[in-house]
Amino acid sequence: MANDFLLVLPEEIITLGALALLMAAAWAGDRSAKVLTWLAVLLLGVAAAFLPGVTDAGGSAFHGLFVADSFAAFTKIVMFVGAAIALLMASSWFGRDGDYRAEYPVLILFSVLGMSIMVSATDLLTLYVGLELQSLAAYVLASFQRTDSRSAEAGLKYFVLGSLASGILLYGISLLYGFTGTTLFDGIAAALAADGVSQGELFGLVFVFAGLAFKISAVPFHMWTPDVYEGAPTPVTAFFASAPKLAAIALLARVAIEAMGTATDSWRQIVIFMALASTILGGVAAIGQRNIKRLLAYSSINNVGFALVGLAAGTPAGVASVLFYMTVYLAMTLGSFLVVQRMRDATGAPVETIASLSGLSRTRPGLALAMAIFMFSLAGIPPLFGFWPKFVVFNAAVAADLTWLAAVAIATSVISAFYYIMIVKLIYFDAPAPAYATTREPVGTGLILASALFVSPLGYLAIPILDRATRVAAGSLF
User: Fold this and answer.
1) Which one of 328, 335, 346, 358 has the fewest beta carbons within 10 angstroms of its own beta carbon?
2) pLDDT at 57 over 70
3) Which residues make beta-bridge pairs with 60?
4) How does pLDDT run across 311-328, given as a tens digit for each residue?
5) Mean pLDDT over all residues of the chain?
6) Hey, what's the torsion of the CAs at 278, 339, 156, 307, to 10 degrees?
7) From the CB of residue 157, how many other CB atoms can be counted at a distance below 10 Å?
């Protein structure tokens, strides 16, 4: 039992820290919000520092309900970094609006706790508990800006559609339990291997994948994404597009490989459909957008499709390519939202129209260069680092005899490149729109610079480290 509590030490640190910050927020009020934000970032750093030791101890905890392996450790480290950046973004964003409340960092921590449980879940019930803990905090975060009706609308839409997805997931879990007699991943895999996939088990598999598809905003369960991304405060949108998306993708990979690896032919068809539909719709639907956050929402749907191409391979190299892709995607999307956060008019009000980026190179050249780097990298244009994750994903699909899938995905990437390049064209070749207000945010500037350097050609220097880490992480699932 003592070893069990050792294996969940990072989760214990986050739990106790979040509860302590909650008490501090209740006692000190909103004036403590910025201090609590930095304490939350520190807490995530401490939890991440204990992950290598926990992974070395290894093994499962609480009778197989929770696992501490390399896959979970790698995913958690990247998630913690993404959550920390979202916290730092919020401090400057809400500070100017006077709507920054002390419960924001607490909600982020509880959401991260849910994500941490998700990626270590080896039982369907643990999976559901972690998923709901993350989701409940996310619903509140989406509607956090009380003075903005769009934020309230985003929270309501997210809650209603999220509840529907939870119901679908629970129904799938109940079917799998009814036909396999267990909720443990290894037990489900053994049952599927013993007698083949029965009709009831197939229905359960489909419903579980449908519920998880909502969490990663894969087509056809993407309908909430554009509205929630547009209505939620920009730091919250950046958070939704990064850490929770990685956690959900990792959870889907663990379920597919560990729980249903013996039924790969059954779930692969579902993943291929979601991959193709997401890359096509994410590429086409974004072309007519006029709001930068809605465009980035469709961009996230598009990028999830590319990640699913790697998962469809169902091999260690395929899972490693998914982790590699999502790590680089986090840097690209967080960098893009950091730039979007700087889009404010002379009065300090947020500006979200794509047209307002016109001629940015002449009014804010540094910001324009950063945005161009992120857009070209998201498009996968070499020599920027965003090219390499796409290459790795397509290579894994080809190695798994899914050459046709890789070819279609490459073709759809050309579609998505159109709107990324369109933004760069606006920035550098169109007549200048009214200049954005200048801001003094050294932390935000540093984060933009770090993200831009990572996705620039300098990012290729990280390939040996990232490649080794993702391969070791993926290997722990097989």
Assistant:
1) 346
2) no
3) 67
4) 999 899 999 999 999 999
5) 88
6) 20
7) 18
How far, rounded to the nearest angstrom, does the alpha carbon of residue 335 sit from its chain's CA centroid?
Answer: 14
Give me the mean pLDDT over the 355-380 stretch: 90
**CA 175, CA 123: separation in Å to the nearest integer?**
14
Cα torsion angle, 138, 144, 145, 151, sign: positive
If pLDDT is split at 50, 70 and 90, which confidence band does 96 have?
Answer: low
CA distances to 175, 252, 302, 416 from 308, in Å: 25, 10, 10, 16
**Whole-angstrom distance, CA of residue 154 vs CA of residue 156:** 5
Residues 59 and 68: beta-carbon distance below 8 Å = yes
Decide if pLDDT at 30 tops 80. no
Q: Assess contact for 53 and 111: CB atoms under 8 A.
A: no
HSE-up (13 A, CA, CB side) for residue 393: 32
| Amino acid type, 324 | F
- Using a 10 angstrom Cβ sphere, with 0-12 exposed, 13-18 middle and 19 or more buried, the burial of residue 427 is buried
Q: Which residues have C-beta within 8 Å of that of residue 51, sequence separation ≥ 6?
A: 10, 73, 76, 77
370, pLDDT greater than 70: yes
Q: What phi and psi, each to the nearest 5 degrees, are found at residue 232?
A: -70, 150
CA distance 305 to 327: 15
Alpha-carbon dihedral sign for residues 447, 451, 457, 460: positive
Structure pTM?
0.93
Nearest 5°: the CA angle 145, 237, 307 is 160
Half-sphere exposure of 289 (CA within 13 A, CB side): 29
Alpha helices in 98-148 (DSSP H): 103-120, 124-142
Residue 310 neighbours by CB under 8 Å, 6+ apart: 318, 319, 321, 322, 325, 392, 393, 396, 397
pLDDT, position 21: 92
